UniProtKB/TrEMBL annotation:
Homododecamer. Catalyzes a trans-dehydration via an enolate intermediate. The record marks 16 as: Transition state stabilizer. GO terms for molecular function: 3-dehydroquinate dehydratase activity. This is 3-dehydroquinate dehydratase. Belongs to the type-II 3-dehydroquinase family.
Length: 143
């Protein structure tokens, strides 16, 4: 089982800056992730929250809930949440950070990720396919 976590404002996909994030909704993205998981032979569970504390708790509990890795798009928390960074480094599962947009081609504040340094890697700018690559990585790594 792999956990896909989307953070703040990602519930607005489809109507939020479609020029940046595309026209697909969160539901579309989550359905795609489940389908990609099925192709890879792994069950994918998707969750989204606008609340930092909720994301922390999902990260804390993931290993004991039987997940073997986490695909994480922390949204803007990427750029400032030391609490999320500490939650990632405080548990043992591999985490791959994903961004739909190319954060390095955008505003300067998005060039900083306080979370990527404690993740296995970071995929940015490849749209929804970035989640697929992250799922592939975690499946191979933990298979
Ligand atoms: C994002 C990039 C972040 O900078 C932004 O705050 C988001 C989405 C992305 O997927 O491109 O909410 O993580």
């Amino acid at each position: 089982m792999i956990l896909v976590l989307n953070g703040p404002n990602l519930n607005l996909l489809g109507r939020r800056e479609p020029g940046v994030y595309g026209s697909g909704t969160l539901e579309d993205l989550e359905r795609q992730c489940e389908e990609w998981g099925a192709e890879l032979g792994v069950t994918v569970t998707c969750r989204q929250s606008n609340f930092e504390g909720q994301l922390l708790e999902w990260v804390h509990e993931a290993a004991e809930q039987g997940f073997r890795g986490i695909v994480l798009n922390p949204g803007a928390l990427t750029h400032y949440s030391y609490a999320l960074r500490d939650a990632i480094s405080g548990q043992d599962l591999p985490v791959v950070e994903v961004h739909l947009s190319n954060v390095d081609a955008r505003e300067a504040f998005r060039h900083v990720s306080v979370t990527a340094g404690v993740c296995r890697g970071k995929i940015s700018g490849l749209g929804a396919r970035g989640y697929r690559y992250a799922l592939e990585e975690l499946t191979e790594l933990t298979g």
